[in-house]
Amino acid sequence: xxxxxxxxxxxxxxxxxxxxxxxxxxxxxxxxxxxxxxxxxxxxxxxxxxxxxxxxxxxxxxxxxxxxxxxxxxxxxxxxxxxxxxxxxxxxxxxxxxxxxxxxxxxxxxxxxxxxxxxxxxxxxxxxxxxxxxxxxxxxxxxxxxxxxxxxxxxxxxxxxxxxxxxxxxxxxxxxxxxxxxxxxxxxxxxxxxxxxxxxxxxxxxxxxxxxxxxxxxxxxxxxxxxxxxxxxxxxxxxxxxxxxxxxxxxxxxxxxxxxxxxxxxxxxxxxxxxxxxxxxxxxxxxxxxxxxxxxxxxxxxxxxxxxxxxxxxxxxxxxxxxxxxxxxxxxxxxx
Length: 336
Ligand SMILES: [Zn+2]
What we know:
Blueprint: H1 7-10, H2 15-20, E1 31-36, E2 39-43, E3 51-55, E4 58-62, H3 68-81, E5 86-90, H4 96-99, E6 110-114, H5 115-154, H6 159-177, E7 186-188, E8 191-196, E9 199-204, E10 216-219, E11 224-232, H7 247-258, E12 264-269, H8 275-297, H9 302-306, H10 323-335
Parallel strand pairs: 4-5, 5-6, 6-7, 11-12
Antiparallel strand pairs: 1-2, 2-3, 3-4, 8-9, 9-10, 10-11
The chain binds zinc ion.
Residues 93, 95, 210, 229, 238 line the site of zinc ion.
């Protein structure tokens, strides 16, 4: 999978980018599609879904896009829909495919996140990317240059291919160096309300789920929920073990939001869905936990458990490569 336009993914070092990024090499056109009552969903994004609410008093955006470049395209697309200012941007969690577009938004936009998400951005995203910027990427480029030089001397057949790889690495490095770290200006613990243009937007944290800092964004007046990565529609989810994910509480949280007065659900990844979509994710996680419990009870090692075939009900789910990681996350959670 060639990814000429996004360093963190192309370098193959950022697991999340590699696992959750889009399947297409070329960036698709970003397009705002109306959901209901001034709320729009962006289509054509590389990673996590982005929605935005247009009101007379300004715009509220949920999540930022996967790269600075994609963030820019989102801001431009919003400007085609409205000339109102982007007043607020709510982050559902810290993962790069939801936060690395932040620098493209106006400096006056108030960025809101659950406190643990702000902490995770500082604790996990920044050191990892600084490490790549200062060490891993320069080392990879130096090694690749050496390889190309050697092949050139030998007039080897695969020279062209390796030269291309060097070019890709260099352009990815340039993009990585352009990344700035932007942090939330407002944080909260369990619940926060934003009032804009006569509407209330509820931002709710229901404890550990996909990560330890997930926000669910509820538009009660529109009966819409932006669920963030508590919901991967039509796909195996990523379980954010490095940031305190908890599948038992994740299931509980999905059941709680299913009891809200909601008709449409924007998932963190995948297409617009509804309450049954939320419950399907809860059912998947429950079945996964039961299956892994069974494997542990049967004395299976982690490596044996990871070879488990997809449960029949989930065949056809996208990103099957996440299944062994899902199994590992739950295995370790249950062994704790
Ligand atoms: Zn995520």
